[in-house]
Amino acid sequence: MNLINLQSNQDFKIPISIFIIFLSGLILRFYFFPHELPLIADGMDYFTYATEIVHFGNLPTQWTPINNGWSIFLSFWFSIINLENSFQYMQLDRIISIFLSSLITIPVYFLCKKFFDEKIALVGAALFAFDPRLLLNSLLGITEPLFILLGVSSLVIFLKYQQKAMILSFILASFCTIVRSEGIFLFGILSILFFIKYKFSKEILKTYFPCLVIFILILLPIMDYRTDVAGYDGIFQRASFASNQIISIANNDSGSEILDGLKLFTTYFGWILIPNFLLFLPFGFIQFLKHMNKENNFIFIFLIIYSLPLLYAYIVQAQDTRYFYFLFPIFSLISLFAVKKYLSFFKRKNIVLFIIIISLLISSIVFYEFKKIDSDNEKEINSISKIISEKELGLNFHPTVTRYIYANELPTNWPFEISNTQFKTVIIETSNFSNLENFISSSRNSLTSIVVDNDSNLPEFLQDVHINEKNYPYLEKSFDSSDYDFNYSIKLFHINYQEFDSRK
Fold first, then answer.
1. What are 480's strand-pairing partners?
2. What are the respective helix, strand and coil percentages of the chain, to the nearest 5?
3. Side-chain-side CA neighbours of residue 138 (13 Å)
4. Whose CA is closest to 277, among 326, 322, 324, 328?
């Protein structure tokens, strides 16, 4: 196999094959690029914060996402690349995220190569590069790609190099912690593994102490900033809050919340196995435990400790598979123990490895195409949101339509200050109400219209409006998506308050 030597260190060689896998993952992500859609939810928060950094030329003093490292990273690229409008910068946001997500393939390869030969390590890289959930995540403009890249790179450097390189591993861990507070667990892992690897001694302390100091020095400015703006540092105080919350649940609860969290953990773990990990990870983990040695112990310790924030997330009822994603490099590695075992049954191992990699690519495409049904709806929902946002309304919260409203009302001029942006549409929460009349009465100062469909996540009283609109004479239909040849069925009603008041 042709190799490109990047350093004199013979362990650090990159085969042409890994570049092919990297490029394949990159192309796959660009193929599914949502060209017509703006950022939403967390992606929008990170984007607008990065925008304000460019606008002010420094970190905003009015607000900050607690995990603001991704936005700070984005702001650098936003400041040096000239585009025409906000939407184009949203697409740049996605492009950067896609590139980083694909780039992770390379340190994952080196992680796997630490334990297996380069051919088997390619399968580990492919498992990560072609995973459909990571593909989707890379399109959202959120923290995971940069977080995972920094984390796995830190681990690879720790495992592959000697004491002199440790400081770089801890530097990467510090930046990882700025991107997401869970990175503090990586620092803890590296510290534990450091003293397991080199034994505790005065001489070793001379190496560890500079690592600790630099880690703290990198974190201190951002912690001080977050404390001034948000009231807490977002790292140690957040970890303390999480610990106290778990203790409180354990002391005051019968155990049902912890049990529900474990059920969520098990459910989502089952989901992330599909499609590509299912044939490899469970059996791979069995083989991994059968072949425990010093370096396998390092991975086991990493897996256990790095699972703690994940367990916390599910105990407090987080509803998302993405909390597993930072473990995917480890899952890819452990899966190779199964791959190696499977290969032992075949003579033509290279052909089998090629078939496995191609199968991973095809299964990911098929899986994503199946999930993409929702993506087609998103384009219609965004178009509907544009129509609704032009009406300057006060709307009830809707889990699909309203998430695009503010994105479509962002200033087109770049850069802008989100804190002073005047949005035309007011979105009013419905979760505290059990019937429509109470909701309208309590919100009448801002509420002008009701948007409804048959979404099961809507309150029942709003679903009923969609089904039985004739039962509500004070609601005057001003928009029906079926009149515009949309497949997605949604209706907008203007509230006639005179009629509403007359019926009391």
1. 491
2. 65, 5, 30
3. 30
4. 328
Residue 35 scores a pLDDT above 80:
yes
Place of tokens 């667990």: 185
Residues pairing with 427 in the sheet: 395
Work out whether the CA dihedral 335, 29, 88, 38 comes out positive or negative: negative
Task: Tell me the one-letter amino acid at 222.
Answer: I
**Are the beta carbons of 180 and 147 closer than 8 angstroms?**
yes
DSSP per position, 53-115: HHHHSS--SS---SS-HHHHHHHHHHHHS--SSHHHHHHHHHHHHHHHHHHTHHHHHHHHHTT
pLDDT of 264-287, one tens digit each? 889 999 999 999 999 999 999 999
Long-range pairs of 385-390 with CB within 8 A, sequence gap ≥ 24: 387/479, 387/484, 388/425, 388/451, 388/479, 388/492, 389/424, 389/425, 390/424
What percent of the chain is modeled with pLDDT above 70?
A: 92
Return the residue matching tokens 């209706």: 491
CB 35, CB 54: distance < 8 Å: no
How far apart, in whole angstroms, are the C-alpha atoms of residue 238 and residue 30?
36
CA nearest 388: which of 441, 451, 454, 318?
A: 451
Predicted confidence (pLDDT) at residue 137 exceeds the cutoff of 50: yes
Using the predicted structure, report yes or no on whether residue 439 has a pLDDT greater than 50.
yes
* CB-based contact 96:427 (threshold 8 Å): no
Note the helical H segments in 231-280: 236-252, 256-272
**Res 247: pLDDT:** 67
Strand pairing class (426-428; 394-396): parallel
What's the token pair of residue 35? Answer: 């060209």
Q: Which residues contact 340 (CB under 8 A, 6 or more apart)?
A: 116, 120, 287
**Residue 273 tokens, joined:** 């196995």
How many other C-beta atoms are found inside a 10 Å radius of the C-beta of residue 366? 12
> What confidence tens digit (pLDDT) does each residue in 47-57 have?
999 999 999 99
Tens-place pLDDT, residues 209-261: 999 999 999 999 999 999 999 888 888 776 666 666 666 666 666 567 778 88
| Cβ 401 vs Cβ 408: under 8 Å | no
Strand partners, 396: 428
Percentage of residues in the chain having pLDDT higher than 90: 55
Question: H or E stretch including 427?
Answer: strand 426-428
Is there a contact between 12 and 6 (Cβ–Cβ < 8 Å)? Answer: yes
* Separation of alpha carbons 306 and 188, rounded Å: 9
As a whole number, mean pLDDT of residues 296-300 equals: 90
Query: Bridge-partner residues for 5, per DSSP?
Result: 13
pLDDT score for 23:
96
Asked whether 169 and 154 are in contact (CB, 8 A), the reply is yes
Is the separation of the CB atoms in 438 and 500 below 8 Å? no
